[in-house]
Amino acid sequence: MESTPMDIDDAPSAAATPSLNITRNLAANVPSTTPISEVIASFRPTKLFQRDDIKEGKPRPYVLSIDFDDPGELCMTSESDETIQIYNVKEGRHDKSLLSKKYGVKLARFTHTSSSIIYASTKQNNAIRYLATHDNSFIRYFEGHEGAVTDLALHPGADNFISCSVDDTALIWNISTKQWIGKLFLNAPYLSAWDPSGNVFAIASLHSGSILLYDFRNYEKGPFSVFDVLQATRSGPVEPEWAFQGWTKLEFSNDGKHILLGSRGDGHFLLDSFDGSLKAYLKKPVAGTNRRAVGEPESVGNAESSGDCCFAPDGRYVLSGAKSDVLVWDTLQAPGSDKVLKPAHVLEEKRETAVVAFNPRYNMLATADQDLMFWVPDPNV
């Protein structure tokens, strides 16, 4: 895994590492239209990537984020040693290593063009950098934040994105210009997410314990709805302090019905996206990971979290990492009277799982802490 220039669009050589044989079919005898509900329990670790470019005596880096390009053929990680790693999903191989030693890197995201990415800086300044991966050259810097960036959320169909920061602002950008096009002044707006249509975006304001929903076409008018997380969880099993700390992830389900609010506590919040009510508290049966939530001091965890939970593409299942194993909740199951929902499945994995991402194009899962793991359904289960 040498850090050398490489064109991602080049055809892989015949001598490449063995193929993972991921196709748009789940397996030889499982059609691509098979519902996730029929295979979710059969996901198994299939390909482990361990960095072989770490010098002896140097600490192994942590994976800070995982992302897939729109076609689902490339997987990208940002890592604590100030590198970006890119992997070929179908071939199951490492393709490229990019260095960002001068500025640092976290929250790396593909744009809608697979050969370009954006990511947040961790030193020098708080700019967001727009990079062409085929020649490792910067296209543009997005400057405007006066504090560390805590989240980047790309519009699902347009060239817009939202950045959140500890400077109490959330900025709205268009990737074609270096100047932000919208600015929201909020108290600790650490997380953001777009709904599947791209017409609505949400900002999670940690210190106020609220999720604010905006009409993208009229965000200047302020939020059209505010969900009070503390109020939503008041009669449930959640300790009040978790309504105001430890938030790690904000995500809409693809059917638009639910919002997932990830927490480094002992569970995640599943909220109704229309009225903000708590549908279920997704209780973890084992301890959470050693990552700190955005905005928390370094003493809390070994690396910053970009979210250890996500929805499956059908919106029915929520997957989450833990100290060991991957937890799967079925949101169609009825929670108890206290709103607690226990995992429906546990996917066995001995390693800690601190970052989780689902690739809907190839129905595969990626997890990581210090090593990246690809998961696919086992047709023999």
Structural account:
With 381 residues, the chain is mainly β. It contains 1 helix and 29 strands. The chain has one helix spanning 229-233; strands spanning 43-49, 63-68, 74-79, 83-88, 93-99, 106-110, 116-120, 128-132, 137-142, 149-154, 160-165, 169-174, 182-185, 189-194, 200-205, 210-215, 225-228, 247-252, 258-263, 267-272, 278-283, 309-311, 317-320, 326-330, 340-341, 345-347, 355-359, 364-368, 372-377. The strands form 7 sheets. Strands 18-19-20-21-25 form a 5-stranded mixed beta sheet. It is globular, with a radius of gyration of 20 Å. It starts with 42 loop residues before the first strand and ends with a strand. InterPro entries: Swd2/WDR82, WD40/YVTN_repeat-like_dom_sf, WD40_repeat_dom_sf, WD40_rpt. Belongs to the WD repeat SWD2 family. This is WD repeat-containing protein 82.
Q: What name does CATH use for the topology of the domain at 48-74 and 136-374?
A: Methylamine Dehydrogenase, Chain H
Number of strands: 29
CATH class of the domain at 48-74 and 136-374: Mainly Beta
The SS-based structural class is mainly beta
Largest sheet: 5 strands, mixed
What's the tally of helices?
1
What is the average per-residue confidence, as pLDDT, rounded to a whole number? 88
- State Rg: 20 Å
Proper CATH architecture of the domain at 48-74 and 136-374: 7 Propeller
Helical percentage: under 10%
Strand content: 35-45%
**What characteristic shape results from the CA principal axes?**
globular
Order of helices and strands: EEEEEEEEEEEEEEEEEHEEEEEEEEEEEE
With strands numbered from the N-terminus, the spatial order across the biggest sheet is 18-19-20-21-25
Pfam families: WD40
Protein name: WD repeat-containing protein 82
Keywords: Nucleus, Repeat, WD repeat
Organism: Humicola insolens (Soft-rot fungus)
